[in-house]
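Form 12-C: Joint structure prediction
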Amino acid sequence: AQTVTQSQPEMSVQEAETVTLSCTYDTSESDYYLFWYKQPPSRQMILVIRQEAYKQQNATENRFSVNFQKAAKSFSLKISDSQLGDAAMYFCAYRSMNYGGSQGNLIFGKGTKLSVKP
Amino acid sequence: DGGITQSPKYLFRKEGQNVTLSCEQNLNHDAMYWYRQDPGQGLRLIYYSQIVNDFQKGDIAEGYSVSREKKESFPLTVTSAQKNPTAFYLCASSIDIVFTAFLGNTIYFGEGSWLTVV
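Section 2 - Result
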């Protein structure tokens, strides 16, 4: 079974600075997707960025980028020019490309709470 | 606007009672999901449905039941058999489970419902 581990329960960053959130995962599959979701105080889950395992190029979305190391099974999220609105829980998630049973399901880590200081 | 609507936002249940959480989507998505979130935890899958009149158990289905009589609706009933129902519940949807898994289509989330047992 696949697992996702986020080893930093809480992180803090100064406004306008850069912060990196860590995520590692365990899988025997070669084809999968990885995601970062943001959960602000409103509790709605918002997709931040996704990475296809078959792509070597790291995904970027504006101020958000990932460092995907497939061999190391590592998927970190970098937030540049941090803003107060970035304060939230961030969840790393894994999804298999192989459909079968609940294989299309997202497997989540326990999250990292990010605080942004003004 | 297109999206996923969950109701009620807050619900209190007495011991021994069944309660039903509503989830409606107007995104024309075939696949719908129910997740449970506990404090300090990621999301865990309760049930999912690929299509009308079909649904499958997720990782923590015991004490829960669902129905899928209409494409846009996927209500979750928390039964008295659920030993620890106090949690935050999130409904989600995606275009199609197979394409969601294979193509990495996005899973969209509702705003969630808080259930507290009193």
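Section 3 - Comments
Chain B touches chain A through 28 residues (CB under 8 Å). Chain B has a mean pLDDT of 89.
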